[in-house]
Amino acid sequence: LLTSFAATLTYDTLRFGEFEDFPETSEPVWILGKEYNALTERDEILSDVTSRLWFTYRKNFPPIGGTGPTSDTGWGCMLRCGQMILGEALVCRHVGRDWRWARGQKQREEYISILNAFIDKKDSYYSIHQIAQMGVGEGKPIGQWYGPNTVAQVLKKLAVFDTWSRLVVHVAMDNTVVIEEIKRLCMPWLDAAGACGGAGELNGCLEGACALAEEETALWKPLVLLIPLRLGLSDINEAYIETLKQCFMLPQSLGVIGGKPNSAHYFIGYVGEELIYLDPHTTQPAVDPCEDGQVPDETYHCQHPPCRMHICELDPSIAAGFFCRTEDEFDDWCMRIRRVRFCEHCSFVAPLTHFSDSDRLERFFDSEDEEFEILSL
Question: Is 281 a catalytic residue?
């Protein structure tokens, strides 16, 4: 009882105190591709932030692996940030970026399904259990802290089993986005058409030996693009600050995961020189769905003014995320990202190119983020 009370007290304290109110400023506020006026749209800003899924440390969940930890306090912050950036992708995929959460409102079926994908139990698609156990294959024992690249690689692997969302999660390594590779991943029927002698023969092939499962013939599988980056050595290079801000202005933005050394945050926007973020470092009791299928969801939404930190405090190792529901959205992202530059000689994603089959990038990194290529100025 005392433990439960302490957890509730901690959460209530976080909700109703200790946080600065949102600043009154004439500078624009950007939240995941949407621009706000802090002087006239404060309620809209807070509603948008509150509607993002907030995944924090939890305790008293079933042991990971049957005999492992029952809480991720102290080690699971980057895993929770990975859940948040992917949770935003699922929100965009199933209920739309403009969907808003309100306390006590009747829950949409799609929203319940999204929450169930993250419930802290072994059979949820993106539970702490699944992420921690899949991370073992990336060289991370259960209970060890992750970097942005590791959690990106794990989410890529787990998404394959999510037959409901049918996402393509692609991790762009070496600061390189290979357009042709992504289009083949998101439109697998292109390869089938090539194998059958060209797109003109696709329909005939589908009736015969080259038939694909129905879900494989969709024109475009929604894309979650995760780009691990290193923006400096020990501190963020000031040359990248404006470019990082521009990432939050793109309509395809899913935000950024990163933070400070061994202390991860989910960054969703900025105002002035401050980044706006959701902080997973709050331990709350694990949640079980109700018998009627509803999920008690108040602790999955941050109901206090969002946290802020000066952009220069950001650890240089990050992963930026983007969501493209359609091919047109991906083409639009490619056009926009070419205009986003870290400096005069180095593009944000360098280069955006087409590669032949022999040049396709299939590289996996089992080592941690400090071994990433550093963009030179």
Answer: yes
pLDDT tens digits for 149-180?
A: 999 999 999 999 999 999 999 999 888 889 99
Question: What local confidence, expressed as pLDDT, does residue 15 receive?
Answer: 40
* Helix (H), strand (E) at residue 217: none
Distance, in Å, from the CA atom of 320 to the CA atom of 314, rounded to the nearest integer, reads 13
The SS3 call for residue 87 is helix
Q: What angle do CA 262, 267, 268 make, to 5 degrees?
A: 165
Q: Measuring CA to CA, which residue among 330, 153, 351 is closest to residue 252? A: 330
Condensed to tens digits (0 to 9), the pLDDT of residues 87-127 reads 999 999 999 999 999 988 888 999 999 999 999 999 999 99
Answer yes or no: is pLDDT of 7 > 60: no
CA 189, CA 135: separation in Å to the nearest integer? Answer: 31
d(CA 22, CA 31): 13
- Find, among 97, 106, 17, the residue nearest to 52 by Cα: 97
What is the pLDDT averaged over residues 187-203? 60
DSSP bridge partners of 276: 269, 308
- Please identify which residue in the block is written with the tokens 């990202």: 337
What are the pLDDT digits (tens) for 301-358?
998 888 999 999 999 999 999 999 999 999 999 999 888 754 333 333 434 544 443 3
Whether 279 is catalytic: yes
DSSP reduced 3-state for 96? coil
Q: What is the distance between the alpha carbons of residues 57 and 287, in angstroms, rounded to a whole number?
A: 12
Q: Among 94, 162, 281, 304, which one carries the catalytic annotation?
A: 281
Instruction: Name the token pair of 119.
Output: 């419930």
Kindly report, residue by residue over 58-91, the tens digit of the pLDDT: 999 999 999 999 999 999 999 999 999 999 999 9
Distance CA 351, CA 374 (A): 14
Q: Residue 47 in contact with residue 76, Cβ under 8 Å?
A: no
3-class secondary-structure state, position 298: helix
Of 31, 95, 15, nearest to 267 (Cα)? 31
Q: Is 307 a catalytic residue?
A: no
Quote the pTM value: 0.83
Q: Which of 48, 72, 120, 279 is catalytic?
A: 279
